[in-house]
């Protein structure tokens, strides 16, 4: 077993398009029932992390973001606010949360199902520490079932379903989707993607790589992959015609 017994591990099956409404509902439920609980929400990308934080803040939730696009000073400040309980909700990417040691976290929510079991184990390991109880809830879409099976096989445990009142989610669905889009537009105005690309180029230069050469190699590799895929499809079509 790769996870501790004190950890209650659940999943919530949600349609991809309405995932954020379920997240807001979960956060609201925990805030209403356990105002003093600390929650970590894991996301797949820096952009998702930033958008979700902006969105939750619009709903007046005490949240703070932690991702690699933030300057080190900002990351330290965000962590300090979460550790000191000024903010009860931390939204983080896997890279930014690496090595985090925060003893009193009651809930971990996986906004996306991790692609690898070891990432899942690392994420949920942020709660139920030092003998304390904790809960981990993973939002699972119709495209993630195989990932859940891989996780269950690794941890030798079946995840239990977490039940919610669907009508309460439906009641906030439209508003959450509108708020998400507003936050995305606001983020686009901050040139977030452009800054990410600049940071990426800087990192490559620090590693002794030529960004333009790397981009060229990537494009060539994509062409080869596309060509190979087309060849496989032609072979498949030929075989099917012969049947």
Automatic annotation (TrEMBL):
<dbReference type="Pfam" id="PF00271">
    <property type="entry name" value="Helicase_C"/>
</dbReference>
<dbReference type="InterPro" id="IPR001650">
    <property type="entry name" value="Helicase_C-like"/>
</dbReference>
<dbReference type="GO" id="GO:0005730">
    <property type="term" value="C:nucleolus"/>
</dbReference>
<keyword id="KW-0378">Hydrolase</keyword>
<comment type="similarity">
    <text>Belongs to the DEAD box helicase family. DDX49/DBP8 subfamily.</text>
</comment>
<keyword id="KW-0539">Nucleus</keyword>
<keyword id="KW-0547">Nucleotide-binding</keyword>
<keyword id="KW-0694">RNA-binding</keyword>
<dbReference type="InterPro" id="IPR050079">
    <property type="entry name" value="DEAD_box_RNA_helicase"/>
</dbReference>
<dbReference type="GO" id="GO:0005524">
    <property type="term" value="F:ATP binding"/>
</dbReference>
<dbReference type="InterPro" id="IPR027417">
    <property type="entry name" value="P-loop_NTPase"/>
</dbReference>
<dbReference type="GO" id="GO:0003724">
    <property type="term" value="F:RNA helicase activity"/>
</dbReference>
<keyword id="KW-0067">ATP-binding</keyword>
<keyword id="KW-0347">Helicase</keyword>
<protein>
    <recommendedName>
        <fullName>RNA helicase</fullName>
        <ecNumber>3.6.4.13</ecNumber>
    </recommendedName>
</protein>
<dbReference type="GO" id="GO:0003723">
    <property type="term" value="F:RNA binding"/>
</dbReference>
<dbReference type="GO" id="GO:0005829">
    <property type="term" value="C:cytosol"/>
</dbReference>
<feature type="domain" description="Helicase C-terminal">
    <location>
        <begin position="6"/>
        <end position="170"/>
    </location>
</feature>
<dbReference type="GO" id="GO:0016787">
    <property type="term" value="F:hydrolase activity"/>
</dbReference>
């Amino acid at each position: 077993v790769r996870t501790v017994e004190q950890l209650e591990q659940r999943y919530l099956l949600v349609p991809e398009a309405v995932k954020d409404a379920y997240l807001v509902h979960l956060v609201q439920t925990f805030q209403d029932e356990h105002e003093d609980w600390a929650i970590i929400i894991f996301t797949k990308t820096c952009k998702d992390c930033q958008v979700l934080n902006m969105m939750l803040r619009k709903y007046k939730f005490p949240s703070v973001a932690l991702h690699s696009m933030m300057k080190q000073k900002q990351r330290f400040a965000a962590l300090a606010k979460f550790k000191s309980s000024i903010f009860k909700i931390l939204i983080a990417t896997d890279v930014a949360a690496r090595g985090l040691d925060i003893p009193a976290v009651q809930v971990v929510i996986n906004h996306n199902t991790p692609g690898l079991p070891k990432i899942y184990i690392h994420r949920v390991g942020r709660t139920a520490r030092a003998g304390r109880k904790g809960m981990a809830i993973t939002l699972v879409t119709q495209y993630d079932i195989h990932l859940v099976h891989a996780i269950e096989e690794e941890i030798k445990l079946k995840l239990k379903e977490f039940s919610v009142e669907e009508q309460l989610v439906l009641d906030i669905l439209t508003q959450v989707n509108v708020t998400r889009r507003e936050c995305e537009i606001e983020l686009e105005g901050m040139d977030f993607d452009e800054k990410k690309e600049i940071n990426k180029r800087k990192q490559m230069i620090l590693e002794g790589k030529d960004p333009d050469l790397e981009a060229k190699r990537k494009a060539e590799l994509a062409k080869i992959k596309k060509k190979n895929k087309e060849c496989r499809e032609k072979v498949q079509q030929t075989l099917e015609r012969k049947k």
